[in-house]
Design goal:
Elements lengths: L6 E7 L6 H14 L4 E8 L5 H11 L3 E6 L4 H11 L4 E4 L7 H12 L5 E5 L6 E2 L3 H18 L10 E4 H9 L7 H12 L4 E5 L1 E2 L9 H21 L3
Parallel strand pairs: 1-2, 1-4, 2-3, 5-8, 6-9
Antiparallel strand pairs: 4-7, 5-7
Bound molecules: guanosine-5'-diphosphate (GDP) and magnesium ion (MG).
Guanosine-5'-diphosphate binds next to β1, β2 and α3.
Length: 238
Amino acid sequence: MSPTPHLSVVIPVYNEEAIVEQAANELSAGLEARGWDYEIIFAENGSRDRTQAILTEMCAKNPRLTWFHSETPNYGVALKAGIERARGDLVVCDEIDLCDLVFYDQAIPRLERREADLIVGSKAARGASDQRPMLRRVATRLHNGLLRVTLGFKGTDTHGLKAFRRERLLPVIARCVVDMDVFASEFVVRAWRDGLDVLEIPIQLQEKRQPSIHLFRRVPNVLKNVARLVYVIRVRGG
Ligand SMILES: Nc1nc2c(ncn2[C@@H]2O[C@H](COP(=O)(O)OP(=O)(O)O)[C@@H](O)[C@H]2O)c(=O)[nH]1
Ligand SMILES: [Mg+2]
């Protein structure tokens, strides 16, 4: 592997002992098969199961894989720190229950041709299919509707798969203020608002398992962080 790989994949992980190894093996086999120079960075925090032991073993075996840890479970903190560690010209933010190589095949060549700065894999755009339970599909629509009304968001999705040119997005990410789930939304919303070239491509979403955190338990934090974002962006003009 060269000191600066072409592609960095960042994957937040939390209590994923059941799927992390197989998902990572399939993903690295797929990236190898494409002949890409890549690294995969696992951003783990707060796991209470065997995830850390599995990551330690996996990363010892494969120099393209690295992981880091912090104590408190926090998706946004993990993703942001993972992006800051990424060294590739191109970065993909993935999730361990997705690892959808179709998205890579569509997004990477477009970034290489500089057709976009940020490509969002949307589960709500025309042509997408979303196999998740109805309640979660509705939650996605409500969340994105909220972002459109409050923050002038122009797209259809902010969570899940994203690919971008690192140098173009780093300044946007440096200005992000919220964590947890809403960090992913903030970063996409800011990219749109800053006038970067954002492209959405529809994805066929099929999760390898149900989400680990119950939907309703996430709602108070999402609302609090969206309110904070509205204050920072709309009131303070940040
Ligand atoms: N580091 C970290 N990763 C998390 C946390 N919560 C979820 N993840 C990871 O984020 C990805 C998506 O999580 P998931 O439970 O499928 O939620 P979904 O985005 O609603 O589908 C997976 O790779 C999870 O392991 C967390 O608190 N910390
Ligand atoms: Mg999921």
